[in-house]
From TrEMBL:
Membrane topology recorded in Swiss-Prot or TrEMBL: Multi-pass membrane protein
Location within or outside the cell: Cytoplasmic vesicle, Autophagosome membrane; Endoplasmic reticulum membrane; Golgi apparatus, trans-Golgi network membrane; Late endosome membrane
TM regions (residue ranges): 58-81, 119-137, 283-307, 365-387, 399-418
PANTHER family xref list: APG9 AUTOPHAGY 9 (PTHR13038), AUTOPHAGY-RELATED PROTEIN 9A (PTHR13038:SF13)
Bias kind Low complexity: ranges: 746-770
GO biological process, one term: lipid transport
Compositional bias (Basic and acidic residues): 1-10
Xref: InterPro entries: Autophagy-rel_prot_9 (IPR007241)
Reaction catalysed by this enzyme: a 1,2-diacyl-sn-glycero-3-phosphocholine(in) = a 1,2-diacyl-sn-glycero-3-phosphocholine(out); a 1,2-diacyl-sn-glycero-3-phosphoethanolamine(in) = a 1,2-diacyl-sn-glycero-3-phosphoethanolamine(out); a 1,2-diacyl-sn-glycero-3-phospho-L-serine(in) = a 1,2-diacyl-sn-glycero-3-phospho-L-serine(out)
Protein family (similarity comment): Belongs to the ATG9 family.
Protein name (record): Autophagy-related protein 9
Length: 826
């Protein structure tokens, strides 16, 4: 296993969420004054249940119907296989009736004794029933436990958070989170800290998901294949994800000893080879278990898919041609510290533009074939329908009804391959609109949106529903082989990943260091972090994940107080946006990334939500004029107003303005474009008459909706701006601004929570040309030009590239028993 040697080093925590002097704090509360929620042992699970926020009744019914659904699927399948006489059902055998000659449905049911005898004689059915019974009993015990926990959450909402179940739907997650932070001072639900922060709560809810997002970002997961006809393929299903979580986080022998702590042996580097062998053996046994259970799981997947999708396909045959975000796409596009509902809301806003982009690529040959097949099938269907209208006895003819159904499905499928004749081919513009919502996109897609290679790569993120169903059906067969032959080879890389990218946060426990969103530890110099990051190529998050996640979290949680390093990065970005937006007022709009990112939003395919909330926002944003079809008019737009829209990364002042002025403000007319666009954007189906009712509950919900959409729009604009800056920096067009950023970074004081060694102090005094962070310098002009750093595997680098990317080696961690080992940060 020599080829698994890596050059990783353990990262120390970049900052502490605790105030100075509270790092080892343990809050003591007298016994008599303790509340029922004092010192909740498993805060991770507690916060996860709170974040569901669907109400006790919804969660209770969901659990009950899951149990009933399992019993129904197993019982109904066994009944169909053993208790039905299909010869009578298909009229292959006649039944003698004394009172009527018509065959009824009960005539096809076998007697009870015959049915039970057939079940007892079938060994495979008995085995299926035993496995299903054990699994159902396990789910029943889990159901009873979950109901007790849900009742506790209900009591917590009512008594601690002072939220009734009827008003719960009108509260946003940020409002619930603010109350949790407030009651920490009274109830001390966490005894290791006096005060909780927004980042603490997100860390506990998303502890394991942040690890998975980081592994996908560093190309450690999922496994990629190169198939002869399909090319590079990513296979990532719910079954495979379940096995990954079982191996890494919560299964027997996993890397974590509990919900919040990595096992001590995985924090040391001296026994990494032994741990890799142990992990490899465990993956092998889990793969063998998957292989043995493959028939049972496969049968369940087929039955569940049949019962779930057959009626939908019959009712809407074109549903298989619809698209959905793949599981791999949801992890690739996910920010660090982004909740499920935040992610799905963001991806749902980009669904329409993504569908239109994929529909742009219609094969002319396939279109001609589809038109003619639809014509022939439609002709036959028209004759059959006409005969049926003339005489309904035609339906009694054998296979007539089946033919009508199949011809209808054929026509629907063919029409899905026929493009809209009014559609305009504008892939670059559509890709910009998609980027405004999904926030992540490979660099080589820029300027290549019209190519089929880009379309095929985007299809891995945005796949057909039929492909999703097929992958889930094949998952029980393919998953064991992926675990046994592919994942085992990465066991040492996985061990190194968890050791090097795990930090202990006070009051939270072991978390993924990428989730700290620290630009200095994991920033990328090509993403506006030049001069502010000290990360090596292996510590850098790819695709600007650190910078975009930091910006998203700061905008989503406007009251969060970032550490000093992150605050400096945000303030520099705000200043740059304001400066370039102000420069656009002087006539250089066309070369401005701020204007380019905003101008790219004008597209017929764009849902009008990006502009609607600007109209509903504060007065400084209301003067943005809309052109035809809801797009920004570049002639009439006021650049100073656009600057005010881009001036702040965090909408704290905006939220205060809206909360203070909203109740006294006059609601817009129902036919106002902002209200119309807001309804189209939210998809809530709320009628305009509800707005005019003036109810306090609706006003609070509308205020929250305005704030949420303002934050969404602000994040979309900044994502476009950062991508535009990244593209210009990659082309070497922003050397002056990079120099300014580096100069500002050198004058910024170091944080007391991030000590600097003497080696770092000496390096900081040297010239910038001696610091290699994926950029090249011109010794004559002194300007820096960023260059793209390739995505590297999780192992070490090649020998020929060592000299150009050399940094001081870090000695291997010893095998001492002290935890954690004292390692100087490089």
């Amino acid at each position: 296993m020599a080829h698994f040697d890596t050059e990783y080093q353990r990262l120390e925590a970049s900052y502490s969420d605790s105030p100075p002097g509270e790092e080892n704090l343990l809050v003591h509360v007298p016994e008599g004054s303790k509340s029922p929620w004092h010192h909740i042992e498993n805060l991770d699970l507690f916060f996860q249940r709170i974040s569901f926020k669907n109400g006790f009744t919804c969660m209770l019914l969901g659990e009950i119907f899951e149990l009933v659904q399992l019993v129904f699927v197993v019982a109904f399948t066994v009944f169909l296989a053993n208790c039905v006489d299909y010869d009578i059902l298909f009229a292959n055998k006649f039944v003698n009736h004394t009172d009527s000659s018509k065959v009824t449905l009960p005539d096809a049911f076998l007697p009870v004794d015959v049915c039970s005898a057939r079940i007892r004689d079938n060994v495979f059915v008995i085995f299926i029933l035993i496995i299903s019974g054990v699994f159902w009993l396990h789910r029943l015990v889990k159901f009873i436990y979950n109901i007790c926990c849900y009742w506790e959450i209900r009591s917590f909402y009512i008594n601690a958070l002072k939220m009734s179940m009827t008003d719960l739907p009108y509260f946003t997650w940020q409002e619930v989170q603010a109350r949790i932070i407030e009651i920490q001072k009274e109830h001390q639900i966490c005894i290791h800290k006096k005060e909780l922060t927004e980042l603490d709560i997100y860390h506990r809810i998303l502890r394991f998901k942040n690890y998975m997002v980081a592994m996908v970002n560093k190309s450690l997961l999922p496994v990629r294949f190169h198939l002869p006809l399909l090319g590079d393929t990513v296979f990532y299903t719910r079954g495979l994800k379940y096995n990954f979580e079982l191996i890494f986080f919560w299964g027997p022998g996993s890397l974590f000893e509990n919900e919040w702590s990595l096992k001590p042996e995985y924090k040391r580097g001296g026994n990494r080879l032994e741990l890799a062998d142990r992990l490899s053996s465990r993956i092998l046994w889990i793969g063998i278990a998957n292989l043995l259970l493959c028939p049972v799981i496969l049968i369940w997947q087929i039955l569940y898919a049949f019962f779930s999708y057959t009626e939908v396909i019959k009712r809407e045959p074109g549903s298989l041609g619809a698209r959905c975000w793949s599981l791999y796409g949801r992890f690739y596009l996910r920010h660090f510290n982004e909740l499920d509902h935040e992610l799905m809301s963001r991806l749902s806003k980009g669904y329409k533009a993504s569908s239109k982009y994929m529909n742009c690529f219609m094969s002319p040959l396939l279109t001609v074939v589809a038109k003619n097949v639809a014509f022939f099938a439609g002709s036959i269907l028209a004759v059959l329908i006409a005969l049926t209208i003339y005489d309904e006895d035609v339906l009694a003819v054998e296979h007539v009804l089946s033919s009508i159904t199949l011809l209808g499905i054929c026509i629907t499928v063919c029409r899905s391959f026929i493009p809209d004749k009014h559609m305009v081919f504008c892939p670059e513009q559509l890709l910009k609109v998609i980027l405004a919502h999904i926030h992540y996109m490979p660099d080589h897609w820029q300027g290549n949106a019209h190519r089929y290679e880009t379309r095929d790569e985007f299809a891995q993120l945005f796949q057909y529903k039929a492909v999703f169903i097929l992958e889930e059906l094949l998952s029980p067969v393919i998953t064991p082989f992926i675990l046994i032959f592919c994942l085992r080879r990465k066991s040492l890389e996985i061990i190194d990943f968890f050791r090097n990218f795990t930090v202990d946060v006070v009051g939270v426990g072991d978390t993924c260091s990428f989730a700290q969103m620290d630009v200095r530890q994991h920033g990328h110099p090509a993403w506006m972090s030049a001069g502010k990051t000290e990360a090596s190529i292996y510590q850098q998050a790819e695709d600007g994940k650190t910078e975009l996640s930091l910006m998203h979290f700061a905008i989503t949680n406007p009251h969060w107080q970032p550490p000093r390093e992150s605050t400096h990065f945000i303030s520099l970005l705000k200043e740059k946006v304001h400066r370039e937006a102000a420069a656009g007022q002087q006539g250089i709009i066309a070369e401005n990334p701020a204007f380019t990112s905003t101008h790219s939003l004008q597209s017929d395919s764009e849902p009008r939500s990006l502009i609607a909330n600007l109209l509903m926002g504060p007065p400084s944003l209301a003067s943005l004029h809309l052109g035809r079809e809801g797009s920004i008019n570049p002639v009439s737009i006021g650049v100073s107003e656009g600057a005010s829209a881009l001036r702040s990364l965090s909408p704290v002042s905006t939220s205060q303005h809206l909360r203070g002025s909203y109740p006294s403000a006059r609601l817009p007319r129902p036919d106002h474009p902002a209200v119309v666009a807001g309804r189209a954007m939210t998809g809530s189906g709320t009628d305009a008459r509800t707005i005019s009712s003036g109810s306090s509950a609706w006003e609070g919900q509308l205020s929250s909706m305005v704030l949420s959409e303002y934050a969404s729009t602000e994040m979309s604009i900044h994502a476009l701006y950062m991508h535009e800056m990244h593209n210009q920096q990659s082309r070497g067009e922003v050397s002056e601004s990079v120099n300014e950023d580096m100069e500002a970074a050198r004058t910024f004081p170091r944080s007391s929570t991030f000590p600097t060694t003497s080696h770092q102090a000496g390096a900081a005094q040297q010239s910038g040309s001696q610091r290699h962070y994926g950029r090249t310098s011109d010794p004559v002009s002194g300007s820096f030009r960023a260059q793209r750093t390739p995505r590297m595997p999780m192992g070490g680098w090649s020998e020929e590239n060592q000299m150009s990317r050399h940094h001081d080696p870090v000695p291997e961690e010893g095998s001492e028993d002290e935890l954690p080992p004292h390692i100087h940060k490089v």
